[in-house]
Design a protein that fits this description.
6 helices; 179 residues; Four Helix Bundle (Hemerythrin (Met), subunit A); 0% strand; globular; mainly alpha; 58% helix
Length: 179
């Protein structure tokens, strides 16, 4: 049975195997981002802090891209899906961050939630096929491929780092603070 904290986030399991623990911490970090972005209108999702152009909407879109890139593209070798497949990433490497300002909040939340749902399903498939040792189908230029374990730990780090940004951004919008 999953325990939820005061913000409705699933607590990582205290006693689980390695895969269950990693997935528990990743889901906690995903839920933290969702909490920090909840209930905001377009203006709130476009708010910045200081000199940085980073926004909560940009975080949602960037993390949707990162979810799709690591689990769909790298782990399973799939081609980029919309909207990522039409972007010239070499000409505009920050497209995900920049373009979020023009997207309605409902679309940003849906894009991120859909990417997370795909990632969960693709992770289940990889665990069934090869466990945490399952190698990504895409490789780095030197031929090495990260394992599912590496990808999960990287995603936990990615969310944890960006959730620190989300704390500052959300506090600047309406004073919401916490973890």
């Amino acid at each position: 049975m999953t325990q939820l904290d005061d913000q409705g986030r699933p607590e990582p399991p205290l006693e689980a195997g390695e895969a269950g623990t990693l997935l528990g911490f990743l889901d906690f970090q995903r839920a933290t981002l969702e909490w920090k972005c909840a209930g905001l209108d377009a203006s709130g999702l476009r708010a910045t802090v200081g000199a940085s152009p980073m926004t909560l909407g940009g975080l949602l879109k960037h993390l949707a891209y990162v979810e799709d890139d690591w689990f769909s593209r790298w782990l399973h070798g799939q081609e980029r899906r919309p909207p990522w497949d039409t972007v010239d990433w070499e000409a505009d490497p920050d497209w995900d961050w920049r373009s979020a300002a023009g997207d309605p909040p409902e679309e940003l939340h849906a894009l991120w939630r859909d990417a997370v749902a795909r990632s969960r399903s693709l992770t289940e498939d990889a665990l069934a096929a090869g466990g945490l040792e399952q190698r990504a189908r895409r490789t780095w230029p030197d031929g090495r491929a990260p394992s599912l374990r590496w990808i999960l730990v990287h995603m936990i780090e990615e969310y944890a780092r960006h959730n620190g940004h989300a704390d500052l951004l959300r506090e600047s919008v309406d004073g919401l603070t916490g973890e």
